[in-house]
Amino acid sequence: MRVIIVILVIAELSLAMAETGTGSGTFNLINLGSVDGKNYFYDKTRRTWQASRDFCIESGMELATIETPKQAEFLKSKYNYSTFSGFYKLGGRDALLARQFTWDSSGTAATDIVGLNWRVDPGYSEYLTCVSYYSNIIPVFNIVGCEVESFVLCQT
C-alpha cells in the first residue's frame, strides 16, 4: 500500500513539473552577466550543436557569439574551475568551406579579431564542424565535430 502511495506522489510531482515547465532544463541556466548589450547564460548539460541551438531557442535565446575583444575578455574573466570551465557550444559552424565559420544568428564570419586563438580537435574532417568556447586559464575557440556533446552558452 505504501509503495503505491509513493508511486502516485512521484507521478503527481512529475506531472506538475511538466505542466509548469520545471524540469525542462531551463532552470539550469546560470547568468554570467552582460557585456556589449548581450547577456550570457550557460548550462552544464552536454548536448550536440543542434540540441544546444534548440535548447537556447526554447529558452528564448540563441547560441552565443563572441565577436569583440570586450566579449572575449568578459568571458575570460568569468572562468572558474569549479563552475564555469570546460567546452561550451557557440553559435558558430562551418560555412561548408574548409575551416571557415559563420555565426548562426547573423551569418557573419567568425574571425580571430577577438583575441582568442583557434584550436582544432584532432581527428575531425574539414566539414561538419562547429565552434565551441573553451573556458580555461587560456581560453580558445575550439573546432570540433558538431555531433560532439559539450556544455551550452546562450545569449539574449
UniProtKB/TrEMBL annotation:
<feature type="signal peptide">
    <location>
        <begin position="1"/>
        <end position="18"/>
    </location>
</feature>
<feature type="domain" description="C-type lectin">
    <location>
        <begin position="35"/>
        <end position="155"/>
    </location>
</feature>
<protein>
    <recommendedName>
        <fullName>C-type lectin domain-containing protein</fullName>
    </recommendedName>
</protein>
<dbReference type="InterPro" id="IPR001304">
    <property type="entry name" value="C-type_lectin-like"/>
</dbReference>
<dbReference type="Pfam" id="PF00059">
    <property type="entry name" value="Lectin_C"/>
</dbReference>
<keyword id="KW-0732">Signal</keyword>
<dbReference type="InterPro" id="IPR016186">
    <property type="entry name" value="C-type_lectin-like/link_sf"/>
</dbReference>
<dbReference type="InterPro" id="IPR016187">
    <property type="entry name" value="CTDL_fold"/>
</dbReference>
